[in-house]
Design brief:
alpha/beta; 8 helices; 29% helix
Length: 283
């Protein structure tokens, strides 16, 4: 999270006057890794141990060193001494509306049952011109929270229709020397951006609030559903053609599964990222 946030602060010139953490964020780097981050993104030399231990492993010390002036944390509980106590299953009070230049969620949304209301509240909390930033589970996090997320959810929700514009959508595996990938939005070329792999994958989102809108006045739709023309009955010829395609796909898939089992082949997970809608992203 720290490397990505520092990169965004530089690339996207984030305004850091008023900063809100959704859930009080902990640091998950050791002292050396933290010091390396500060050097990599030209924030100067720091004492990593002091930054970690002086704030009881919470992120405030790091945020202050990169220029954050005022820091709040929102949580449903007082357990970690959050400054705002609020259950995100419920609408955020209007007193907090448009209060923060940056709203950062690094591990909360997937644990909130009423995910639509929680995301809507985060969007409301963001100032005009400010940024909503999130890191969420994408693939292979079964049982971690209520949800795993696709890129299309955020492309459709954080859209101009709801007052936002997505600046970055990044996919990555949390491991040393990982490669970061920019994910394309759905389009005529990619009506569904579908991706499977073996390792746990995160999705990182940066979106800017570009105008004040009534959020989710119209429920977001997946791009291919929104583009469909629901007029009369579907032509039988097209339906039969698609049915044959599905049968062929199922047959090919089954053959490949059997072949993999018999040959005990385990595809390289890195090869699964070689998709036309994924492009290497430099922090």
């Amino acid at each position: 999270m720290i490397r990505l946030l520092m990169s965004s602060a530089r690339k996207r010139e984030l305004q850091l006057d008023h900063f809100l953490m959704i859930g009080r964020q902990n640091l998950h780097l050791n002292a050396q890794e933290l010091e390396d981050c500060f050097v990599e993104f030209e924030y100067g030399a720091v004492d990593g141990n002091a930054l970690i231990h002086d704030h009881n492993t919470f992120a405030e010390g790091v945020l202050e060193r990169i220029g954050v002036a005022q820091i709040d944390a929102l949580d449903a509980s007082t357990y970690e001494d959050a400054t705002i106590i609020h259950d995100l299953n419920l609408p955020i009070p209007d007193t907090y509306r448009s209060s923060y230049n940056v709203v950062l969620d690094s591990g909360t949304l997937e644990h909130v049952f009423n995910v639509q209301e929680a995301l809507k509240s985060c969007m409301k909390l963001t100032k005009l011109g400010g940024h909503y930033i999130g890191i969420f589970p994408c693939n292979n996090f079964f049982g971690h929270g209520f949800y795993q997320f696709s890129s299309e959810l955020f492309y459709r929700a954080l859209s101009p229709q709801n007052g936002f514009k997505v600046l970055d959508m990044i996919l990555f595996v949390d491991e040393p020397n990982t490669t970061f990938y920019s994910i394309a939005d759905t389009s005529v070329e990619y009506p569904r951006v579908q991706f499977t792999n073996q390792k746990p994958v995160y999705i990182y989102v940066v979106a800017q609030k570009i105008t004040e809108k009534t959020i989710f006045e119209n429920a977001p739709l997946q791009m291919d559903y929104a583009a469909m023309k629901w007029r009369g009955n579907r032509p039988k010829k097209v339906a039969l053609k698609n049915k044959k395609k599905k049968q062929l796909f199922a047959s090919t898939y089954l053959k490949n599964v059997i072949k993999a089992i018999l040959n005990k082949r385990h595809p390289n997970d890195d090869a699964r990222f070689k998709k036309n809608f994924l492009k290497a992203y430099q922090l």
